[in-house]
Amino acid sequence: MEINGKKSICHLFLILMLLICFQLHSKAQENESYKEIPVGVILDMGSLVGKSVHSCITMALSDFYTVNSHYKTRILLHDRNTHGEPLHALPAAFDLLEKTKVQAIIGLDSTPEAKFLAVLGDEARIVILSLSPAPSFNKYPYFLQIAHDETTQFKGVAAMTEFFGWKDLIVICEDTDNGREVATFMANTFREKRISITYSSLVPTSASNELVQEELQRLSTMQTNVFVLHTSPSLASLLFLNAKDLRMMDGGYKWIITSKTMNFMNLMDGEVMESMQGVVGFKSYIPQSRDLEEFTLKWRKEYPLMEVKDMNAYAIWAHDAVSALAMAVEKQVLKSKSATNGSIQRDTTLLNQILRISFHGLGGTFQFRNGRITTQVLEVINVIGKREQRVGFWTTDDAFTKNIGKPNSFLDPCLEAIVWPGGTRTNPTHRVLQTRSKILRIGVPLQPRLGRVFQVTYDAQTNLMDISGYCGDVFQAAFSALSREVAFQFIAFTNNGEVGTLDYNHLIDRVQAGEFDVAIGDISITANRSQYVDFTLPYTDLGLGIVSRNADTSMWIFMKPLSSELWVVSACFFILLGFVIWIFEHRMNEDFQGSPGQQIGTTFWFAFSTLVYAHSKLSNLCLSFPQLKQPSESSIWYLC
């Protein structure tokens, strides 16, 4: 019995060892069958956005290959840190291409970086997955944008402006190439809704506190009280902190911010949130799902030291993008026979595969259209206290709604009640600010130079002034066309107090110095004056012209177009021409023979007649090279 027991134990031990060896062998074979596909990641690893994006990419690959363990490919990430400098992105990309032979690059959340690598991606024929929301990258087929197009929301801003009945607004953007491009997009979008942009303010990205205060003070003096802000979160924080100090976050003001700031509200501190009370913004919509909740909990456990605890849209888009890339790589390797030594052919095949990918990810439906992920819905957020209060949604159908998928009721408003700056829930009109607005000071020259174009009536005792004439009528019509009443005051302009010795250059100087806000009158637009002040578009033709009666009836009036010296020179050339022709023709041409008087007359007649008609006797009267074989014959010359 003991011997049989020992044999059974030995058999079990051998079976266990065989199973372990089989598992190890299978695992080794499985590992050997993987093809590692190098993929580059270029991010600012020191920023909160860069950290969250990189962590989500890493977790996404781990979760993806855990679920799809049968895949024959594995993406191997190669990280590069830009340290917040966009210029570092290009050498990092070159390094990834030359040393690691990457097949795709992920990252690039800033527009300057994206512009550098968009060109590089087309030249190297590798897929670039960019987090940049900027427009105007459609001409680069290898440059795929996984962030929503930032220009889509401008239609939502225009729809909100129209919804509340605002007729004009002020746009604040960054003083960059992208900022100026975005300002143009906004202007075109608002123009379709007949909304006027009173002023477009371009603020440098690294603006100082003093510069921001100066710009906001200038904006506060304008009649418009609706502001649309499209800047980075850091610049937006500085603007709102100073706006609160200048009492521009009080009642009567309206602030609308775009997703460029709203998507990163979870990164802002309490002081900034307090200064943004009543702000309304558009935010990229990420639908809530069980998968997103589970991934967020797992992410918090994996990275407990992360400064932020909430996922942002960029991290979720990066998660879905790397999952799509893993699917495309697997399909490409299975279809491509040229996949050897762990690399795939850099061709349109990988690009085509990823463009065909469509699945439901953490951020919703993931599918490329025209080289980027499209969005159909944006959240409308109201900043109240220390939280973001959703007041509704805006869809690309140009409609607001409280709930996705549910039609609006005629009795129910499209949006929840919005708390505006100052704590009011009503939509304040521009009249609230009218009492705080300064009176527009308009400089008027008392004695204009062109009485019929511009006339001024001035009463020195009452200091009242009235303007008329063409310039005055244009001014009155322009002000009457405004959507609001603007208080203005005419101020008489004299040169050192002496009427009649007006110097319009001095009037321009006083406008530049701030003594006058505006100057009207028969003022000519010159290059020198345009360097100091802005002129309206000219509303007359090319300037002044004087029409007078021509009293000259002389028969020699036809000689007026040319000077006397030119007439003399022309006559001398005609005489010289006739003399040259006579030298060559009088020996053999009978027309140039006869008495001296006849020869002179024929010569002059031929020279001057060339002005009015072409001669037909080209054989005798035209110049050409002489024939070498028959020197005795008459030579042929061409004077054409």
UniProtKB/TrEMBL annotation:
SUPFAM superfamilies linked to this entry: Periplasmic binding protein-like I, Periplasmic binding protein-like II
Transmembrane segments: 566-584
Protein topology in the membrane: Multi-pass membrane protein
Keywords: Glycoprotein, Ion channel, Ion transport, Ligand-gated ion channel, Membrane, Receptor, Signal, Transmembrane, Transmembrane helix, Transport
Chief location: membrane
Origin: domain of life: Eukaryota
UniProt KW rRNA-binding keyword: no
This protein's GO CC annotations: membrane
Molecular function, one GO term: ligand-gated monoatomic ion channel activity
Subcellular location: Membrane
Leader peptide range in chain numbering: 1-28
Domain Ionotropic glutamate receptor C-terminal: 439-627
Protein name as annotated: Ionotropic glutamate receptor C-terminal domain-containing protein
The species this protein was found in: Centaurea solstitialis (yellow star-thistle)
